[in-house]
Amino acid sequence: MKLGVFTPLLSQLSLENVLVKLQSLQVSTVELATGNYPGNAHCKLSMLEDAVALKDFRRQLEDNGTSISALSCHGNPLHPDPVQAKQAQEVNRQTILLAEELGVPVVVDFSGCPGDSPGAKAPNWVTCPWPPEYLDVLAWQWDEVVAPYWAKRAEFAAQHGVKIAIEMHPGFVVYSPETMLRLRAIAGPSIGCNYDPSHMFWQGIDPIAAIRILGDAIFHVHAKDTQLYPTNMPRTGVLDTKPYTDERNRGWIFRTCGYGHGAAWWKEFVSTLRMFGYDNVLSIEHEDSLLSPEEGLRKAVQFLNEVVIKEEPASAWWV
Questions:
Q1: Which of 87, 91, 239, 284 is the most buried (most CB within 10 A)?
Q2: ∠ CA 124-251-255 to the nearest 5 degrees?
Q3: Alpha-carbon span 114 to 137, nearest angstrom
Q4: Would the pTM count as exceeding 0.85?
Q5: What is the pLDDT of residues 221-240, one digit of tens each?
């Protein structure tokens, strides 16, 4: 297993300077954003139509000894506004094509969330089964919007030799292991997850136990943590809508690795990932409102370097 970095945290830097900085931290793997919510500071989809730019991009990575773990285009491809949905879908489509061109095996996205009907204006995330009209909305979303889109998009990805890793995130229809496996059952094995333990923590899901449920559906992993605040949680619950910067009043906040859970927890996390077949990249994502991106990145690399399993285990005498 090795460390990587999801580079939007360094969006103020050019790709060249990002690679130099990561080289100084002895990190040689990146996850690059291509558009939608993360933007596209370091990976332009226009390279699909510009052979010179694509060649220069490849050479820049090769010269720095850098590989790409995934291309990411987190968006809402199921948005009830057809203009927004079309934009997110097109970024996803082009990202799959660019991943194929670059030999990148995984594209990361959100599942998206439709509205409550064909005429809706905003997404509608259903969180409870009652009153009963909520279940009617949920059935309509999955049957009429989620399943048709993702079945077709999964087939497209498979045709181009790319897997799509859905990040389980509240606010979208796929937010838990159960909803992830539901989508995978519909769309097939080219759909799996980008596993971010931080989103499991605040929902009350044990991230290590969930690895055993997801198994080979884990295609890519984010290294990000969550700190829970028991003094606030009885008031806020887990569905806390206050801004992330209102740290002292929230029930939980995102933290840099090492500032939420200790090394013993992360060692078990990476060991369980490996036990269930994932032995690839831990891609550091920074959303810690108490640390700058510079400090958060440096601290996460230092902490995780003591946690990751970097070599094949020695064969035991009884094997």
A1: 284
A2: 95
A3: 10
A4: yes
A5: 999 999 999 999 999 999 99
The whole-number pLDDT of residue 135 equals 98
pLDDT at 124: 98
What pLDDT score was predicted for residue 309?
79
Instruction: For residue 254, give the 3-state DSSP assignment.
Output: strand
Mean of pLDDT over the chain: 96
Distance between CA atoms of residues 31 and 72, nearest Å? 7
- CA–CA dist 12, 226 (Å, integer): 25
**Segments making up each domain of the chain, as ranges:** 2-305
Bridge pairing between strands 218-223 and 225-228: unpaired
In the CATH scheme, what is the code of domain 2-305?
3.20.20.150
Give the residue among 213, 220, 161, 155 at the shortest CA–CA distance from 188: 155
Are the CB atoms for 207 and 261 separated by under 8 Å? Answer: no
- Omega within 30 of 0 (cis) for the link into 189: no
Gap between the Cα atoms of 191 and 184, Å rounded: 6
Cα–Cα distance, 295 to 3 (Å, whole number):
16
The confidence band for 60, taking pLDDT boundaries of 50, 70 and 90, is very high
Return all residues near 155 (Cβ < 8 A) that are at least 6 apart.
188, 190
Q: 3-class SS at 226?
A: strand
Tokens 């580079």 locate to: 7
**Which pLDDT tens digit goes with each residue over 77-94?**
999 999 999 999 999 999
Taking the CA atoms of the chain, what radius of gyration do you get in angstroms?
20
CA distance 211 to 276: 7
